[in-house]
Amino acid sequence: MDFVDNSLRAVSEVLATTPHVMFCVKDLDGVYLASNRTFAERAGGTSPGDVIGRTAHALFPRELADSYAAQDAEILRTGKQLSNELEFITRPDASIGWYLTSKSRVCDDDGAPTGIVSISVDLRTPADAAAPHAALARAVEFARENIGRTTTVAEMADVADMSTRQLERSMSRVLGLSPKQLVLRLRLEAALHQLEASDDSIIDIALRCGYYDQSDFTRHFTRVVGMSPGAFRRSPDPFGA
């Protein structure tokens, strides 16, 4: 395990001052063993020392911590790596941001899991940042205007007068998202707004925002936000500590 430990230490040092990239290592009980400064700030601290030895439930709102813990448990159980999962995470100013998270379990020499390593990239660029890029902006606007139905990558590419591959590369470079991830983000942002701004039923909101049914909406919403749409609507401060 010396090589693995040294490798994780080296990665932690490399990412120590990388902006908008969060890095952490947790043991089997969810206790943080290492992190970079950006992760510590995200968790409300000022340095990795404020994180190490604590758990997500000591650092994040309960609903989000529950979601992270469930995610970790599934990775430890199955060994399947989480790759570029679009999710919410708190920022240092207590706002909620969009992130792409990748996680993998760490194993000992016998292949037994010993913990989780996680990297999250803050997608600070809003979807509207595509505006200066006319072709890409057309694709984003098309997805936004058609949020209530299934929007294919091919349709978005056609609107942008690009091949699907060109659209994927351009969107990844400018927005940090794939076309499919953009659609998911726009759907969920619309749903969050409607849950807060209206008294419409959850099923009506789900269908307007392009979800197949309420169950589909609830599964996706809960996975990303960490609570059900109903719980989000009932909470006076859903992301408060």
Explain what you see.
This protein is an alpha+beta fold and 241 residues long. It has two domains: 2-122, Beta-Lactamase (2-Layer Sandwich); 127-234, Arc Repressor Mutant, subunit A, CATH 1.10.10.60. Helix content is 48%, strand content 17%. The chain is built from eleven helices and five strands. It has a five-stranded antiparallel sheet, sandwiched between helices. α6 crosses α7 (164-175). The longest helix is centred in the last third of the chain and has 19 residues, at 179-197. It is globular, with a radius of gyration of 19 Å.
The string of secondary-structure elements, in order, is: HEEHHHEEEHHHHHHH
- Reported CATH architecture of the largest domain: 2-Layer Sandwich
CATH superfamily of the largest domain: PAS domain
Helical coverage, percent range? 40-55%
Give start-end ranges of low-pLDDT stretches. Answer: none
Task: Compute the number of strand runs.
Answer: 5
Structural class by secondary-structure content: alpha+beta
- Largest sheet, strands/sense/barrel: 5 strands, antiparallel
Number of helices: 11
Number of domains: 2
- Oligomerization category of the chains in this entry: single chain
Mean pLDDT: 84
CATH topology description of the largest domain: Beta-Lactamase
Q: Which CATH C-level class of the largest domain is it?
A: Alpha Beta
- Adjacency order of strands in the biggest sheet: 2-1-5-4-3
Q: Give me the Rg, rounded.
A: 19 Å
Shape: globular
Roughly what fraction of the amino acids lie in strands? 15-25%
What is the CA-CA span between the terminal residues? 36 Å
